[in-house]
């Protein structure tokens, strides 16, 4: 499965398949859970942070956080 940090094209519709790592509780508190649909909105000029839309909210993630979120393309 690709990681969120591997996705380079904004506007891709994605679904979270797995969340791991030291920031697991933080991701779960933000609603980034397996099965959740997310939209890749944009990335900073140097690549990170990235901005995603999850459950109607915009969230910025560092590369170290995005490395622990596995995603799959959907819809």
Mean pLDDT: 90
The count of domains is 1
The backbone outline, from C-alpha atoms, is: globular
CATH topology: SH3 type barrels
* CATH superfamily heading: Ferrous iron transport protein A (FeoA)
Biggest beta sheet summary: 5 strands, antiparallel
Radius of gyration: 11 Å
Enumerate the strands of the largest sheet in spatial order, edge to edge or round the barrel.
4-3-2-1-5
Query: Class in CATH?
Result: Mainly Beta
Overall structural class, as computed from helix and strand content, comes to: mainly beta
Features:
75 residues; mainly beta; SH3 type barrels; 2 helices; globular
Description:
The chain has 75 residues and is mainly beta. It has one domain: SH3 type barrels, CATH 2.30.30. It is built from two helices and five strands. It has helices at 24-29, 63-66; strands at 13-19, 37-43, 50-54, 57-61, 69-73. Strands 4-3-2-1-5 form a five-stranded antiparallel beta sheet. The longest helix has 6 residues, at 24-29. The two termini are 17 Å apart. The mean pLDDT is 90.
List the helices and strands and how they pair.
Layout: E1 13-19, H1 24-29, E2 37-43, E3 50-54, E4 57-61, H2 63-66, E5 69-73
Antiparallel strand pairs: 1-2, 1-5, 2-3, 3-4
A few lines on this structure:
By secondary structure, this protein is mostly beta strands. It contains 2 helices and 5 strands. It has helices at residues 24-29, 63-66, and strands at residues 13-19, 37-43, 50-54, 57-61, 69-73.
């Amino acid at each position: 499965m690709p990681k969120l940090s591997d996705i380079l094209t904004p506007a891709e519709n994605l679904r979270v398949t797995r969340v791991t790592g030291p920031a697991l509780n933080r991701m779960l508190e933000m609603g980034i859970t397996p099965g959740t649909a997310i939209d890749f909105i944009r990335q900073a000029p140097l690549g990170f942070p990235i901005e995603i839309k999850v459950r109607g909210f915009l969230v910025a993630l560092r590369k170290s956080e995005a490395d622990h979120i596995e995603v799959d393309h959907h819809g």
